[in-house]
Amino acid sequence: MPGALPIADPAPLDGALPASVAVGSHDRDWSVYIHVPFCRVRCGYCDFNTYTGEELRGAKRADYADEAIAEIEQAAIVLANAGVAPRKASTVFFGGGTPTLLPVTDLTRMLAAARDTWGFTDDVEVTTEANPDSVDRDYLLALKEAGFTRVSFGMQSAVPHVLATLERTHDPEKVPHVVKWAREVELDVSVDLIYGTPGESLADWERSLDHAIAQNPDHISAYALIIETGTKLAAQIKRGDVAPVDDDLQADMYELADKKLAAAGYDWYEVSNWAKHDEDPAVSHASRHNLGYWLGNDWWGVGPGAHSHVGGVRWWNVKHPAAYADRIAAGHSPGAGRETLADSSKYLEHVLLRARVRGGLKTATLDAEGRTAVAGLIADELVDAPAAFKGTLTLTLKGRLLADAVVRRLLADAPI
């Protein structure tokens, strides 16, 4: 089962936010995340807050859209009571789980509720995640007609034995079909990959990269497999049934990904994400929703276990769909806990997140100890020297491989 929620202050039953969240809100972009916590099967590596039919215990998938819409209505009241001026949503993201296990009418109703509540910017980005075996062309066309602009397919690998270790159930040969259908209905396409699965060779990984690149998606994410405590795969490794992850091999896989993706016309914009540009180089297919997280903007997370952030206050909902449904039915906020970020925490997150993006971290925003670390990072070729001399820390390829170490050096004496 997914890991425990953070320990923090309890969230009030009415979800009320302090007036401080309104300060400067007009300068921050507004986004909506809608979590759909349903999966057909639980993959052995997965630690996300998702549930198969057998794990729902009283919650009904058919009721979920109405419950999510009720939380959206709650959100509008909470924000208005806190004095936050209305802002149009610039991005909406349906994540999971597998959102496309729901009828397309459910996704379109939830999207319409967000649109009716906040309005959308003219260039709104609306994404849903999807497994390749969970959609057909008609489903994708209905998404486009409802206002979705982007679909992110969880391909993970093109190699059957790697998919088997991950306990992914889709046929890799389905990927070209779903990408083609999405293209035909004029949706932007992203493909997600995972590398470093136990038993996966460098040749296996190259095969997956080639397969993904051959589909010519607009965006490719490549995430190193992390073995999460409590997952089936972690237990298999502990018992010795499956080999542990090889960190050196993962580094080789990352370097291969960066080389092949760059050659295919993809630019990295975050450590694990690459995107193409249109003929106009100013128009990128980077995920603006995810960039909003890394840049510290505001978002409301709808659904069981979803996290939200507004003006330095972060909170998260109860995890189980049945508990979530009970809160919503009672007219209460589904919030389980919250924290108001202290200045030290805001600084830590600023360094941690901004360092990962290609736009970089401004040296002027660092404290004295962080600025002192810059010379060493340049000398060790972890950040781009010309950019650093101009006041921005941008990771080199070596720096991306050691991103956590770079952050630790910048935060060496920062209060945590």
UniProtKB/TrEMBL annotation:
CDD domains assigned: Radical_SAM (cd01335)
Superkingdom field: Bacteria
Keyword DNA repair: no
Taxonomic path: Bacteria, Bacillati, Actinomycetota, Actinomycetes, Micrococcales
Entry-linked Pfam families: Radical_SAM (PF04055)
NCBIfam families documented for this protein: hemN_rel
Domain Radical SAM core: 24-267
Keywords: 4Fe-4S, Chaperone, Cytoplasm, Heme, Iron, Iron-sulfur, Metal-binding, S-adenosyl-L-methionine
InterPro entries: Aldolase_TIM (IPR013785), Coproporphyrinogen-III_oxidase (IPR034505), Elp3/MiaA/NifB-like_rSAM (IPR006638), HemW-like (IPR004559), rSAM (IPR007197), rSAM_sf (IPR058240)
SUPFAM superfamilies named among the record's database cross-references: Radical SAM enzymes
Primary residence: cytoplasm
Coiled-coil annotated spans: none
Sequence similarity: Belongs to the anaerobic coproporphyrinogen-III oxidase family. HemW subfamily.
Protein role: Probably acts as a heme chaperone, transferring heme to an unknown acceptor. Binds one molecule of heme per monomer, possibly covalently. Binds 1 [4Fe-4S] cluster. The cluster is coordinated with 3 cysteines and an exchangeable S-adenosyl-L-methionine.
Protein name: Heme chaperone HemW
Keyword Iron-sulfur among UniProt keywords: yes
Subcellular location: Cytoplasm
